[in-house]
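Side project, low priority. Logging it here so it doesn't get lost.
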Amino acid sequence: MSKLLTKFLPSETAARRLANKVQLLRPKQAGPTLLVMNRAVLSSDIRAVAARSSLNFATVSAAQFEALTAGVVPKADQTQTFFNPTYWTGPAERREKLKTITRAFLDRVNGRIGFDAVVVANTDYWQDEAVKDACRDMGKRFIVLCRENYAVPLEQKLLDDRIRQTGFVFEGDAVAVASDITRDTMLATGAFKPGSVHTIGWPRFDSWLDAPITAPEDRKLITLVAYQEPLYLAPKNFDDVLHAFVAAAKTSGTPGRFCIKLKKMGHLSALLKACPALLFSGVKIHTKRPLDELLRQSSVVIGYNTTGILEGYLTDCAVIVPWWADAPRTHEDCLVTKDTDLDLATTYFPESAEDLKALIGDAFAGKLPPRGTDAERIAQFQRFIWFDRTATASARFEAVVKAALAAE
């Protein structure tokens, strides 16, 4: 819809039309109101905070908002981090056009609903630069509930390199991150003001604090968290795993017990291209269903170098990290490896497709127990993401928001 709007309507008119569609997630509470530029994964965190706080949320698709301004910025400049200095040093008329479109959108939302701050998922996306600028003009706060977690040295170096190359400076008001590792990494770059980055964990994991774990005999699903993209560092391994997973599903006699969790349905085409047999395998594909719901029904979760695999340690399901082809790595660039006693105590590491099929067979028969004690599994999760059995990330985020709004 937004592409059609931008094609046939003036940009500012299209922006106001999009703003007219923004709605509150629930009847207005007593607390502040936040306008969220929503993205995959962030939406799960927002739902969690909305359920556990007095904050109000109105959401708009970040992709739809981006479509309003994408035609103003050349493709070559639409690059994370690198657009930050370009926004200011590039043509003044381009900057003014971006701000005009953005203000048309924000002013209409503010007039209809009223909001105190904008919340986005990343500190340095190109399409958010004009939003930061407009928020300053409007006296609104710009807050990041960050999806990125720089938990391994490789990612930390990449962030530092990007900031050094670009001179990026974060000009928003507050950043909420998943871990002390990420907070310290961000602050060490010099791009963030002291005291502006706060460790809260991720609110989507709050559900593990109060929801009962499904009894083992009722957990029937065999769940694969997809990692086909090169950014996860093991595409060859994933190709093998996908074929082994589909083969196991087809021979099980109950393929409906097998499911694959994808971030976006658009990623399905890559899986079908790699493994056409998936189409008729009976394996269920999930994008919108929250991962915690799937894991509560799962006896095993299979994955590699993803937050999804870490979430498995909060459950009583077996965690499997395939470990062959391009998968074997160290903690320099991978979350879960065979480097430490804790990794080995909590995780299965099959070293071939046949080993993986054997583990899946055991899980299907109810004979694959989770590895490690509850304390060991929680400790494995806490290595990378803040988590406390006595507190919620949602409450910590609410505190960050209120402190940012109260600041001079």
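Brief comment: The radius of gyration is 22 Å.
Revisit when time allows.
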